Amino acid sequence: MSEDHKKQLKQQLWNIANTLRGKMDADEFRDYILGFIFYKYLAEKMELYANDILRPDGVKYKQIDEQTDKGKEYIAAIREEALEKLGYFLKPSELFSEVARRGNHRDVSLDDIAQAADPNENYAIKSNFILEDLQKILTNVQNSTMGTESEEEFDNLFEDMDLNSTKLGKTPEQRNEIIARVLGHLDKIDFQLEQTGLDVLGDAYEYLIGQFASGAGKKAGEFYTPQEVSMVLAKLVTTGKKRLRSVYDPTCGSGSLLLRVAKEVDNVANFYGQELNRTTYNLARMNMILHDVHYSKFNIKQEDTLEHPQHLDYRFEAIVANPPFSAQWSANPLFTSDDRFSQYGRLAPKSKADFAFVQHMIYQLDENGTMAVVLPHGALFRGGAEGQIREYLIKEKNFLDAVIGLPANVFFGTSIPTCILVFKKCKEHPDDVLFIDASEHYDKVATQNVLRPQHIDKIIDTYRHRTQEDKYSYIATLDEIAENDYNLNIPRYVDTFEEEAPVDINAVAREIQQVNASLVETDREIAAFCQELNIDTPF
């Protein structure tokens, strides 16, 4: 597929998504449109797989009559294989294209769709009623996995798609109309799933998530890390590696960061993540499946990572994270005996969980692993418990490998400056820490600061080659950091001070003399004009 076709797919999906805009919040209509796209993906994947099985018999999956004995025999055999291979099952009558066809969609513009779904408008119902049928099918997808190895991965995946919500329309008929037409337009789009090796739909899905994040304001931070920052984190933790046994994100959001890591290497054996928000947890599982990650290769849990960690028995080769900045946590005294926190002597403050996340991830990092985490700048220099934790990580453990300052205003919903801390338990350079100040290297796009490829490449090249550059990077010894009381504020190490050009006092004096002479001449001209007009001069 050409780049033009990829862009066209993204635009088509975004246009359809906008049929629901204005009727609900961005994060609400996001759940519907991404859910419908996911359903279409599952259905097309199911049809392709079933057709491949049926090829020797010269039968197409849609042609099977579900009511005949022969049809039931076919479906039973395909169901068994599909549950093992795909992790779910859909009957021919449950395929997306069949539901869209039953909705009897007619060609209308996207504006017509929006108008037809307006509860205040009177219009003739143009679609067959499919609402109840569709709700049952979405439930059946989940039910098909019960008792199988994929049950947890598909459990309640569609729970945020309430097809009876009045936000879609005041009456069932109005809700049915908007849904039938959205399905009809989606049905016309060819996802080209048969072209193996292409992740076009996955890229389009990521694009939509990013578009929704840009319109979600502060809420965006709950589920999305800007692609440019994700790329930096992914490149950092994959430095020197072509394959990863595991990658982990303890605050995984929509899972985009985990999937970004996979693009930097030839293979990731297993993906692990944990997410507190139920809706975002569902989105992460959908995202994994849409990127063709087999259900047996990802393990994503829904719980509070600090209070109820779900993967403590695992150690990970790569860890990436963009935790909620300075979030509150319980800081329960019982955690002082928790192996994740006990050796530091202090718990992270109750009002700022930044270092609690760091401690958690350090605990789960494998001996040969690399960890990269985004934190607010305050985590570099705040004192108290955080200062003690920083000192322990550097002085006693020597795990800190690099500190990277990012531009302000690169995250949705917050303009604060941020940084990336890179940790390794087995450092190639055990006597120092690399500091990079990339805070002034960005392009401004509208109200947002954006890292361009050249900015990302500069960060990664500097990290990988461990180079020093005036006003950009510096390699600080552990003694220097100790002399700064383990304060990691980047300006202490990377001098970005710009000296002002020396002032030539004699030249300034001559310029003032010239200005004064010019003023005298101007005064004379004004006096002459006043004399001609027979009026008083102003001076």
- Number of domains as seen in the coordinates: 3
Weakly predicted, low-confidence segments? 116-125, 218-222
Number of strands: 11
Strand residue percentage = 5-15%
How many strands, which pairing sense, and closed or not: the largest β-sheet?
Answer: 9 strands, mixed
- With helices defined by DSSP (H or I, 4 residues minimum), what is the helix count? 17
Q: Structural class, please?
A: alpha/beta
Share of residues in helices? 40-55%
Average per-residue pLDDT, rounded, comes to 88
Bulk shape: globular
Q: Name the CATH homologous superfamily of the largest domain.
A: Vaccinia Virus protein VP39
CATH fold-level topology of the largest domain: Rossmann fold
Question: What key phrases describe this protein's structure?
Answer:
globular; alpha/beta; 3 domains; 9-stranded mixed beta sheet; 539 residues; Ferritin; Rossmann fold
Describe, in plain words, how this protein is organized in 3D.
By secondary structure, the chain is α/β, with parallel strands linked by helices. It has three domains: 3-196, Ferritin (Up-down Bundle), CATH 1.20.1260; 216-492, Rossmann fold; 503-539, no CATH class. Helix content is 42%, strand content 13%. The chain contains 17 helices and eleven strands. It has helices at 3-17, 26-54, 69-85, 96-102, 110-116, 131-143, 151-154, 172-187, 200-214, 227-237, 256-262, 278-290, 354-364, 384-396, 453-465, 478-483, 505-532, and strands at residues 243-249, 267-275, 298-302, 316-321, 365-376, 400-405, 418-424, 432-437, 443-445, 448-450, 473-477. The strands form two sheets. The protein has a nine-stranded mixed sheet with strand order 3-2-1-4-5-7-6-8-11. A two-stranded antiparallel ribbon has the order 9-10. Helix 1 packs across helix 9, helix 2 (26-54) packs antiparallel against helix 9 and helix 2 runs parallel beside helix 12. The termini are far apart.
